[in-house]
Write a structure and sequence with these properties.
This protein is mainly α. It is 41% helix and 10% strand. It contains four helices and four strands. It has helices spanning 2-15, 85-94, 102-123, 129-141; strands spanning 26-30, 33-37, 51-52, 57-58. It has a two-stranded antiparallel sheet. Strands 3-4 form a two-stranded antiparallel ribbon. β3 and β4 form a beta hairpin.
């Protein structure tokens, strides 16, 4: 008889879900409404005592209010950095710009035209939009 009840208890305990690893959120009733929290809503952090279960005695009343440390931002060092902008602009002006060949410019123009045609076909819900998409691939990606 004991073996059957033991087996029955073990079987029932295996069937019940155990969520010990998850955080528990307690439901507290406050003014007939549910308040979900992991700490009671009436928890006091001042005028409290600490109970020692071994000696079964209470400590003296702790009257100090808990204070949060204010986070003060670190002062930013304001150094004046003087930059000679004329020298920088001269360096930028002297950088040789890469010249675009006429063939490259023609390819860019064809790519832009193909993209415009595709966007227009999509806006008009043209069923042949895939042909315009192929043109975009041909002129923009493949080249």
């Amino acid at each position: 008889m004991k073996n059957k009840t033991t087996l029955l208890i073990i079987a029932i305990s295996l069937l019940l879900p155990i969520h010990a690893h998850t955080e528990t959120v307690t439901v507290w009733k406050v003014a007939n409404k549910s308040a979900y929290s992991d700490a009671p809503p009436q928890l006091r952090l001042q005028n409290v005592q600490i109970f020692n279960p071994r000696t079964k005695k209470l400590s003296k009343v702790i009257n100090t209010k808990p204070t949060l440390r204010e986070r003060t931002p670190k002062p930013i060092e304001t150094e004046t950095i003087e930059i000679d902008t004329t020298q920088i602009t001269q360096d930028i002006i002297q950088i040789p710009k890469k010249e675009i060949t006429s063939a490259e410019q023609e390819r860019r123009n064809q790519c832009q035209q193909a993209q415009d045609r595709l966007n227009q076909a999509i806006a008009n819900q043209d069923p042949n939009a895939h042909t315009y998409e192929a043109d975009v691939v041909q002129h923009c990606i493949a080249a």
